[in-house]
Amino acid sequence: MNTSRTLATAARVLRQLRHDPRSIALMILVPCVMLLLLRYVFDGSPRVFDNIGASLLGIFPLITMFLVTSISTLRERTSGTLERLLAMPLGKADLILGYALAFGTLAIVQSLLATGLALWALGLDVVGSPWLLLLVALLDALLGTALGLFVSAFAASEFQAVQFMPAVIFPQLLLCGLFTARENMQPVLEKLSNVLPMSYAVDGMSEVLQHTDVTADFIRDILIVALCALAVLGLGAATLRRRTA
């Protein structure tokens, strides 16, 4: 891995995104809009918003980063840009980390805005530190970025990239413990939920919601999310091809 090449790749992606305001709006503003809608859906039951708002503060960025990253990366695959880049003295790790760094920069902005909106404008009531809430939201957004980079290798068109969302994201959404406690699920589904990263993203948010101090469970949860993101980035680098099929 070459640091200068990684940074050059990240700078190139950010320059391209600067000329695509719709993608920037989708990544940065959509989670905020979803949280705003959710707050006033439960306008008469603020405790309901407190109970699920923290979890969705991590889930919304994960979903939007997955969608935008997978489509943006696929566009570069199908246009031949990635093939031309890989024909240069640029390693796969340099390329995938450059993309992750560029989208991760936007994930930081997204997480800051969404967390600030939820805590100080929408009145989300959490017991733990807001910075811990921000940390989990950021890790979730980075996980979405990693998943998007990975699945873009298996889609032949932008339409297929969108179709991966029901296959990759929706099962995790149903099994993550948002709708019911995981221990109340059918045993096979509970075991499956225990290996899905979104489950630990929701658990991490729940720990911040319920505890003032950093708990061992919280550390376990964020480490699992971070390691899953790194593992998926490694798989994404492995799926890069020197030639576009």
UniProtKB/TrEMBL annotation:
- Cellular component GO terms held in the UniProt record: ATP-binding cassette (ABC) transporter complex
- Listed transmembrane segments: 24-42, 54-74, 95-119, 131-154, 161-181, 222-240
Localization (cell): Cell membrane
Is the keyword Cell membrane in the record?
yes
What would be an example GO MF term here? Answer: ABC-type transporter activity
Q: What GO terms in the biological process aspect are recorded for it? A: response to antibiotic
Judging by the UniProt lineage, the source's domain of life is Bacteria
Q: Which Pfam families match?
A: ABC2_membrane
The record ties this protein, via InterPro entries, to:
ABC-2_transporter_component, ABC2_TM, ABC2_TM_bact-type, ABC_2_transport
Keywords, A to Z?
Antibiotic resistance, Cell membrane, Membrane, Transmembrane, Transmembrane helix, Transport
Q: Which residues form the ABC transmembrane type-2 domain?
A: 18-243
Bilayer disposition of the protein: Multi-pass membrane protein
* Similarity annotation: Belongs to the ABC-2 integral membrane protein family.
Record's protein name: Transport permease protein
Question: What is the scientific name of the source organism?
Answer: Streptomyces indicus
